[in-house]
């Protein structure tokens, strides 16, 4: 697992990471979320031992990343998938990494198969699409078969197929008992994949919660229903304590769950054409949560005000 305690990084006047403490548990995908400039990459670099903290500690399996005799066996990471020698093939790139870390050649074949690059492994990396580079980056992360994975914005710039693939891979890695940490600045990107959320803003911890608890806290229970008897049924629902408002030809009900509404309709012989629970988007909830800590919010608001004045 990853443990971060009082982690702080200052660059001159800028405090990029500010007394952060959280854990990333085995068997879970932990989403590390925050707006641009929140300090996600800086935190991940310190966890990986690529940057020295100004204060605090970050450990992997109880030790600093650099203190592991073969770091690739302790943690695999994807930071910048573009950082490859363009003339070197995926196979030789991985072979060099394996040799440098005392890992057997069979691991190279195993990870190439795992990421689906087997058939193109001899082509120079410079000819790869972004999705293929991302797969190669993941292959390098998996080379040491590590119990911990740290992936910085792995979905950036990927096509839908690549996104589905990385999501599936992260779920599989967690199911195998690994601790998976994945950063993103978009809730929508990770919403379906993560078990746990660590949200930061301006380097500080804003939320550390299970995804289920986040959904529970931010789901506005609304049910949309359509019925030819909507006007009469609305009164019945209100008599049961629900709040009802019209939205076109639909009724939007809060205060009663869909099964209760369905049962009531069945008991009253009301014909239903639609009965659909819906929730507010988690992206909106995330934006509300991080609004005050968005680095460029003030500029954006000023611009909006100016636009309005000009209009
Ligand atoms: N080497 C550096 N020197 C000075 N300031 C830095 C350095 N690296 C990061 N920062 C600053 O630290 C803050 C956090 O940056 P960081 O890249 O960690 O954020 P992030 O959450 O990963 O953002 P993004 O989603 O845009 O990648 C920013 O204000 C950034 O400008």
Automatic annotation (TrEMBL):
Tree of life domain: Bacteria
The entry's keywords: ATP-binding, Nucleotide-binding, Transport
All copies of domain ABC transporter, residue ranges: 2-227
PROSITE patterns: ABC_TRANSPORTER_1, ABC_TRANSPORTER_2
Residue ranges of coiled coil: none
Gene3D superfamilies reported in the protein's UniProt record: P-loop containing nucleotide triphosphate hydrolases
GO molecular function terms noted in the UniProt entry: ATP binding; ATP hydrolysis activity
InterPro entries from the UniProt entry: AAA+_ATPase, ABC_transporter-like_ATP-bd, ABC_transporter-like_CS, P-loop_NTPase
Pfam families registered for this protein in UniProt: ABC_tran
Family according to the record: Belongs to the ABC transporter superfamily.
Protein name: ATP-binding cassette domain-containing protein
